[in-house]
Amino acid sequence: MSYVLRVFCQSPQPISSSEITDFIRDGYFFEQPPHFQVQPNPEAVKENHWKSISIQYQTGKRPILLELNLNDPVLQAEIKEIIEIINQSEPFNQPQDLVQRLTTTQQVIAIDIDSQGLTDAGWEMLDCLEAYLAKQLSGIIYAPEDGFYNDQLQPIYHLETPVSIGAR
Predict the structure, then answer these.
(1) What number of helices (H) and strands (E) belong to the chain?
(2) Alpha-carbon span 74 to 22, nearest angstrom
(3) What's the pTM?
(4) Cβ-based neighbours of 58, under 8 Å, separated by 6 or more
(5) Which of 53, 65, 79, 145 is deepest in the core (most CB within 10 A)?
(6) First-last CA distance in the chain
(7) From first to last of its 168 residues, what are the pLDDT tens digits of the chain?
(8) What are residue 52's DSSP bridge partners?
(9) In this structure, are residues 19 and 135 in contact, taking their beta carbons and an 8 Å threshold?
């Protein structure tokens, strides 16, 4: 079952595909080194301009897919939708800090996983990667059925109604 987490990043500073793949490779999360496929190929373009990174961590398992979305109309529409739901769920106690952080988002890294088939090592890598990306890029993590988390994976806001935003 596909499940998409998002890291909403306030930093406009790009993170290179090699920095992400090195972080995963150096973490020794998996018994065998994972295979990475970066689109576009980082050798053809500056590695800061990657669009997606596929992480094949185990034969027979669906790869984890990271997708980068820079500040564009699709991203702005997603943020607007999330803010509207936050405003509806908490009409008298709106989390202004969270809304402010969402409105100042410069880039989003979406992480598409198979929530049913992800191995324990995959979950461990995912948690570490989310925290790493949020810390490096001044981000907050959104887990659709749970809420928002800081760079220490501590909850900062729980939605009464989960936000289901468009597929990437």
Answers:
(1) 4, 8
(2) 29
(3) 0.88
(4) 30, 32, 119, 122
(5) 53
(6) 15
(7) 899 999 999 999 989 999 999 999 999 899 899 999 999 865 555 556 799 999 999 999 999 999 999 877 888 888 998 888 777 776 556 677 898 999 999 999 999 999 899 999 999 999 999 999 999 999 999 998 788 999 999 998 887 654 455 443
(8) 39, 67
(9) no
Q: Where are the beta strands (DSSP E) in the chain?
A: 2-9, 35-39, 52-56, 64-70, 107-114, 139-143, 147-149, 155-157
Calpha distance 128→126 (Å, rounded): 5
Alpha-carbon distance of 162 to 168, in angstroms, equals: 17
Q: Give the integer Cα–Cα distance in Å for 122 and 11.
A: 26
> Are residues 65 and 111 in contact, defined by beta-carbon separation less than 8 angstroms?
yes
Nearest to 7 by CA among 126, 114, 117: 126
The owner of tokens 């925290």 is 131
Q: Which amino acid appears at position 131 of this protein?
A: A
